[in-house]
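quick one, 362 residues, struct below
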Amino acid sequence: MVNKVPKGKTSQVQDSKQDELRDSVKWLRLAVGKIQSLAIPASPENYSIWYEYFSGRKPDLKQAMDFRLAKKLPFTPQIYRELYATYFGDGPEQQLAEIRRAIRSLISRLSSEISNLNEGMDSFSGVLSDCETLLESDPEVSALGEMIQNLLSETRQCRSKNHSTLAKVALLNKEIDTLKDSLQHMSEEVFEDALTGVANRRGFNIEIATAFEAYQSEQTPASLLLLDIDYFKKVNDDYGHLVGDRVLRFVAETIKRSVKGSDYVARYGGEEFAVIFPATNLVGALTASRQVLASVSGKKLTVSKGGKSIGSVTLSGGLAELKINDTLESIVERADKALYRAKSAGRNSIVTDEDESKSHIA
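---
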């Protein structure tokens, strides 16, 4: 007999997770502010200390910190090292993972705030449109006077709103940049790309070396796929880098969901991604690669809720299988050349290093 989870129970679990994330974001924002006010490095250790201080989950740490704050004792790098060693020990991976999730959530919220602020400036164009309609329907002097008064009033309001909005956008952008820098620093410690959450280049180098060793010692096959987002520069130019960042995250998450758990996804650089298919020959890797392209291109993206459509995002890919005389550099070079041919042949396709022709997805 299968035990069913009550609907109410599922809702409670989801609400609990949302509450936890809200608390994490609140503690993180307090930690960011404190780190900036003290002008100390935004290192993983310092984040951990102040994050836990504001969470109150380590009473002994909070007591030690409060004592130093009350006595106005300095927080030197040595003091931070001692605090970290005493209350955290080595390698607090769960702690850093929690902070990284909070940083990503806060970046998303700040980006949403910026979008809302920009959308709030659209009222002025609406007033101009109304005035144009009024002028066409009633071009008398009285109508002109009413229109001019409306325009003057709205212009004054818009100028005031625009000034405060631009100031807030600048502050939010500055906070986002600070968080991104911190996330990058923190993610490098664990071979994770700060923006997308998949492996970074350092992680990729280790994983491809592992696959290479397995092939050399046991002849276990492996294949490498290099992917590039088509026309990504146009996305940045047309919609801005915040939207570009969202596209990068979408692509990374979709690639990861489209491959097996043993396959290794990494951000190779810029808008380029890599997938290592361990124990997979070229035929099997090609099938999996086509599925990745179909999954990414099968969704329509918008700038924001109810916003302008970006349309579908497509990828081009180059695929290569490890060979007996390969080096780490040569397999990457062969996959990269195949990727270049896919781009030249029209994009939204996978080309293997053994096939000059383009392989369209179904």
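The chain has two domains: 1-190, 201-360.
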